[in-house]
Amino acid sequence: MKILLVEDARAIATVMTARLQSFGHEVILAENGKIAVEKYQKANPDLILMDIEMPIMNGFEATNQIREHEATLQWAWTPILFLTASDTSENLITAIEAGADDFLSKTLPEPVLHAKMKAMVRIAALRQKLSAANRKLHELAMRDGLTGLFNRRHMDMLLDAEWKTALQKRSPFGILLLDIDNFKKYNDHYGHQTGDDCLRKVAQALHNATESANSTRLTQGAFTARYGGEEFALVIPNASVDSCESIAGSVLDAVRDLGIPHAKNADWGIVTTSIGCAYLNVASDTIAGIFRTADTCLYRAKNNGRNRVEFG
Ligand code: GH3
Ligand code: MG
Ligand code: MG
Ligand code: MG
Hints:
This protein has helices at residues 10-22, 33-43, 59-71, 89-97, 110-141, 152-169, 183-190, 192-215, 241-258, 287-303; strands at residues 2-6, 26-30, 47-51, 80-84, 102-105, 173-180, 223-228, 231-237, 273-280, 309-311.
């Protein structure tokens, strides 16, 4: 374990450090509460052993600050054990109320300290497993299972924040809605499994085109999502008209370039898409409004013969 030991008395710190190291732990030492808060943020320890009386900042205040910081993070919780001179019930109550999880007497016999640390290792291991599982769940919850793109729910969440910023800064905003042409016929002709493969490939091409636009700074922070069924959305915050047109063109080409055979797609013989592109010089009104415009443009692209982009 990585243990942050917070103790101002040098003699105690030296003895504790030597003991903890002899149990196989890494020890980071802080001489007061203020240094402890700084080192906690940098080192992300598995356990904090916290003295109470210290100069500059005492253990109670340091614990408060650490707990406040954890409250701003997801899945953050570091066990804090107070180090006390005597193990009275009054000390225990004060420690817990200050946000500590337990307390240890500084005069604990070495084997008892060893045993306590073994228990803390088990908690640390479980904590790591839990936060890994939570991160994985969090990641899964924002992705569409078939394509791996952001799902609609996550897109709506990101959009909310992007739209707020755009309204505040009066910055431009672009939305692309992309729909695969004659996809029902594709499914009917090639089967649903092949249809799913096609959706994955189109999603990947869309994602790659977006990433490439972001990395060449054509767009900044553009992202894609599966909007529903065989429809995808590309959100382009801070868009210029030129960047919207350019990315719409490259997405259209990227899907064509996949060259996925589609015998029932007019005379093209390959999978193509129709794209509706809505653009605002200055974000205003509601996010629903710009989506409605993109949808209208998409319908126009379909009505005008498919395999094209329409702007609005
Ligand atoms: P259009 O060119 O006008 O867009 O015609 P279309 O056939 O693509 O449009 P329509 O909305 O009639 O059909 C969409 C099809 O997309 C129907 C549905 O079976 C298919 N689809 C939606 N989601 C999935 C999916 O997850 N997997 C597969 N294989 N097909 C899907
Ligand atoms: Mg002290
Ligand atoms: Mg559709
Ligand atoms: Mg379609």
